[in-house]
Amino acid sequence: MTDIQGVAADRLRSFIERVERLEAEKADLSADIKEVYAEAKGAGFDTKTMRNVVKLRKLDEADRREQEELLNLYMGALDGTPLGDFAKKIASGEVTVTVGEGSKAA
């Protein structure tokens, strides 16, 4: 190894090259994920909702339950307001909201 001002150049180069390879792999994976979402959107699925499902599935049961409880708490705080009443209609399926062209969320 060549030491340059106390730095092992070969070892440093190895770390840098490993990071560069991983960054390239990460970019490839991101492109693949983007293609899957595009395919799902073309099949009529709402990708925003899909991303939310993926995010929620990453959480453990306790964290997921906490998120649900907070959402219910916040929606409950809106009771009696036009926004709260509308949110309840959406949650019950009484109203369907068009999110984007060809996609729907309920």
Number of strands: 4
Largest sheet: 2 strands, antiparallel
Helix/strand structural class: mainly alpha
Radius of gyration equals 23 Å
- Write down the overall geometry: elongated
Order of helices and strands: EEHHHHEE
The fraction of residues in strands falls at: 5-15%
Q: Ranges with pLDDT <50 over ≥5 residues?
A: none
What fraction, in percent, of the residue positions are helical?
55-70%
Query: What is the terminal-to-terminal distance?
Result: 62 Å
When the domains are counted, the total is 2
Order of adjacent strands in the largest pleated sheet: 1-2
Question: What is the average per-residue confidence, as pLDDT, rounded to a whole number?
Answer: 85
The DSSP helix count reads: 4
What does this structure look like?
The structure is a single chain. 70% of the residues lie in helices and 10% in strands. It is mainly α and 106 residues long.
